[in-house]
Every structure is written in C-alpha cells, then in structure tokens.
C-alpha cells in the first residue's frame, strides 16, 4: 500500500480564499470509487491505497479546480511506496509514538 501527500493549488481565481475548492476536493475523495483512506490537514491531504488507485484519484483532484473556473492548477505530490512490509498512515505514526515512550 502506498501513501501520498497531495496539495492542489488553483491559480487565477477570483479570490484568495480557496476553501470552496478544498471542500470540493474533499467531496471527490469521499465519493471515490477506489478503496482509499484519506486525511485532510491544514496544508495538504494524505491518502493511502494501492498506487494505481491513488494516481487515478490524484488526476481527478488535479482536474477539479479547472471545472470550477481556475485558469491554472499547481499540484504537488509526494509518494511513499514501501514494499518490504505493510505500511499505513496509522502505522507510521504509531512507530514514532512508540519511540517517544
């Protein structure tokens, strides 16, 4: 299972506020047919699932602001694709928390 961090930034919008774009992206993630798990943060979204599924989801996320009138979209992606053992967002956090005790 892979974990991706994605940030979608619409450019050329009528306002500096982007929360309505973020809300639309959240709805897209909730309705995704792919078996994914996601967590939104104040600066990006973290999604876990099979890499092929995640890439399809990211493409839809990138395209969404264009349908709302954005003239340009900048999308940043970080991929953590660990194949030596199962990995998840929860497992990664638990590993660090265990070391803090």
UniProtKB/TrEMBL annotation:
Residues 4-97 form the Thiamine-binding protein domain. Residues 67-101 are annotated as: Disordered. InterPro entries: MTH1187/YkoF-like, Thiamine_BP, UPF0045_domain. One of its GO terms (cellular component) is cytosol. Transmembrane segments: none annotated. Residues 68-77 have a biased composition (Polar residues). It comes from the Bacteria. Residues 78-101 have a biased composition (Basic and acidic residues). Belongs to the UPF0045 family. This is MTH1187 family thiamine-binding protein. It comes from Paenibacillus cremeus.
